[in-house]
């Protein structure tokens, strides 16, 4: 039998699992009677936790929003997941969240059991975050924009585009999209009457002045942002059929570089943009998969040019040399031997003509001091070439 305080904590934890509970289900989970359940619910209300009750046969209980954050009871995996999430948040792209996340993590570490503290500490010791120069997002602005999205309230803000031009915008916000190190807002620009994407780090003073709007056929936010950052800003838009499964290609291509769409289990469609078709041809070759260019036709010419250049490089690298290494060595040895005779005949006699002739006949040709080959000799020229 649990004591009164432990039973209240358990009731509070169960109420957080799902929005609504019937009285019978709660009593069964807690192993108590419905009368004891009503008494415990009343005690939670006295402690400041708003537990709403719905009367009737189909009625039940719901934990509402109160003035104080209720204690959370987490199982082992949930506690480790929260700790890892806080450590990851500390290195993300929201201004000021690092200190806030570390404070929350310190509180969590203080109450974690030793077995769980060791698991989270192992992740911390083994993990290093790469430094990033990506502009960060103000957390107040982030929550303001998110609230406008969920509340369907118009949003106003100043915006700086890619060219540096500043404008004032009034939009109907739809969704926030987190793409790697950047945050994007998908919204309908009221003045331009068109759906647009906005980088949050380029926004200035977002505010929701009031009023509400009815959404007008909003697009899929993730696909819309993917198209906006991978193809829309560029001069060329390429579509290529890759003979490889989409998950395999995704391992070598971040979502900000192109959009992948699975055709079947063995092929996928890549849509990407660039200001230089030669760059697309190079990256296609680096993927290591067979592919077919669908459009634009000019990309085929760049692929052909790249293939021809690589083929010429292979031909030059694998063609036989003008002479074998053995022939080069023979030429290097025979050159000095032919020039040794004039050197011998040019030496002055030391002990008369007879002795000089005898010394010349007894001295082997290979023992004569060779004259170094000139820079224009065939052997030396070939060595320089190779």
Number of strands: 12
The percent of residues in helical segments reads: 40-55%
> Whole-Å distance between the termini?
90 Å
Query: What structural class should be given to the helix and strand makeup?
Result: alpha+beta
Mean pLDDT: 78
Rg: 39 Å
Tell me about the largest β-sheet. 5 strands, antiparallel
SSE series: HEHHEEHHHHEEEEEHEHEEHEHHHH
> Unreliable stretches, pLDDT < 50, 5 or more residues?
334-386
The total count of helices amounts to 14
Strand content: 15-25%
Query: Going across the major beta sheet, what is the strand order?
Result: 7-6-5-4-8
Q: Any idea what the shape is?
A: elongated
Describe this structure in words.
The protein has helices at 4-15, 23-30, 34-46, 76-89, 97-111, 114-126, 139-151, 221-230, 246-250, 277-286, 297-318, 325-346, 352-362, 378-385; strands at 21-22, 51-53, 60-63, 155-160, 166-179, 182-189, 194-199, 203-207, 236-242, 259-264, 267-274, 291-295. It is an alpha+beta fold. The strands form three sheets. Strands 7-6-5-4-8 form a five-stranded antiparallel beta sheet. A hairpin with a 5-residue loop joins strand 4 (155-160) and strand 5. Helix 1 (4-15) packs across helix 3. It is elongated. The protein starts with a helix and ends with a helix.
Write the layout of secondary structure elements.
Blueprint: H1 4-15, E1 21-22, H2 23-30, H3 34-46, E2 51-53, E3 60-63, H4 76-89, H5 97-111, H6 114-126, H7 139-151, E4 155-160, E5 166-179, E6 182-189, E7 194-199, E8 203-207, H8 221-230, E9 236-242, H9 246-250, E10 259-264, E11 267-274, H10 277-286, E12 291-295, H11 297-318, H12 325-346, H13 352-362, H14 378-385
Antiparallel strand pairs: 1-3, 2-3, 4-5, 4-8, 5-6, 6-7, 9-11, 9-12, 10-11
